Amino acid sequence: MGSGSKITQKWMLCAFGSFVGCFIFLLYLKHKNEAVHFRALRHAMFNVTLSLDDSVFLPGNVEISKAARSREDEGDVIQKNSENKCNIFEGRWVYESKGSPYYEAAQCPFLSEQVSCQKNGRPDFDYENWSWEAHDCVIPRFNGRDMLKRLRDKRVIIVGDSLNRNQWESLVCLLYSTIPPSRAHLDFSSSSYKVFKAKDYNVTVEFYWNPFLVQFDSKSSPKIVRLETLDLSSPHWQGADIMVFNTGHWWVHRGKFKAWDLLEYKGRLVDDLKLESAFEVAMKTWADWIDQNVNLTKTTVFFRSISPEHKGQNGCYNKTQPITDTSHVTPLSESVMEITDRTLSKMRVPVRYLNITKLSKHREDAHPSIYAKKTGLASMKRKLKPPSDCSHWCLPGLPDTWNRLLYVSLVLDHPTDSPSLSHLVS
């Protein structure tokens, strides 16, 4: 055989190999539901952890951290390790320099001044670009349209203190920004009751303010917390499809921040009842109402754990990065958290625990600090240090992650909607 024939044969083999390669690549594109992607492969090849305690990825890891999400944007939860269950509350914070928040604050006219940090003059944006990544599974990003579809003809209520109002504002922003403003109804004129409705989906998201869950006579003198009487708004809670509760912060306030003068217990007004005893009675009052009034076939109940504060020596003032060592975070009452756990474990109605405390401890950068009011920037220009809000959270910001985990919990609760989730346990 001549040299020309050999060359022709080699070219034919090359062409055939290229054809086979292209065919395999097209098969890969067609089968998007396979767990291995080029981005995941890139993550496996180049992943390097720079954090001190495996809870925070520093900015140098931007590209590799984005690769780790694989099919996250497609709404699937992917198990990383078949030996471990998917715990969405255990993981690390990943910085994404090219990422963007789910919405712009200007898109949400109902945001309170307290959380409108950019509007109030905050100059940095990095706190908006941190994404939560679970250790043992890849969880999806929040998908507003998908959540509206899941919630079609349903009613969501969020009940609790101003931190739950923070979560309500976040959730409504996440949903409101995905639909035309004309197709939404909003009433946020009251500080104690707010409501959003997506007309085309018949979805309602309501907020009821009550920092103790039980009845609080804040306008009486003396101010009274009635431990065995549920909040007056409780009749309006009935029939909701999803309930999200929280309490804790107002129970542990002391000194000038203590909210009540007297406690009503067993028909008597007392002022010497221990905090832990009072809190346990109040939690039992709430738990009994849930057990007696919630329809197990209709309603899913969530209880959100305590949102941490960062009120240490320097507080959250001028903080622009998450912390890797959370040992100095101002502790809230451990006994309150233990009583909450104990109460939930004894209930007839299963309550899902949104355990956001640990993951939120790292985010001292995400508080409003001096930008909880417009006067903060003016005070800085006068070289004065105004009071810092190290309890609430800027929006867009950390509460968007709380709602992302709420969304993922709903996905995990309905494996029939997503067959690929049937092997996961939340």
UniProtKB/TrEMBL annotation:
The entry's keywords: Membrane, Signal-anchor, Transmembrane, Transmembrane helix
Sequence intervals crossing the membrane: 12-29
Alphabetical list of InterPro entries matching this protein: TBL, TBL_C, TBL_N
Membrane topology value: Single-pass membrane protein
Chain ranges of the Trichome birefringence-like C-terminal domain: 139-407
The Trichome birefringence-like N-terminal domain, residue ranges: 85-137
Entry's Gene Ontology molecular function annotations: O-acetyltransferase activity
Compartment annotation: Membrane
Pfam families according to UniProt: PC-Esterase (PF13839), PMR5N (PF14416)
Family: Belongs to the PC-esterase family. TBL subfamily.
Name by which UniProt lists this protein: Uncharacterized protein
Species this protein is from: Capsicum baccatum (Peruvian pepper)
Organism lineage string: Eukaryota, Viridiplantae, Streptophyta, Embryophyta, Tracheophyta
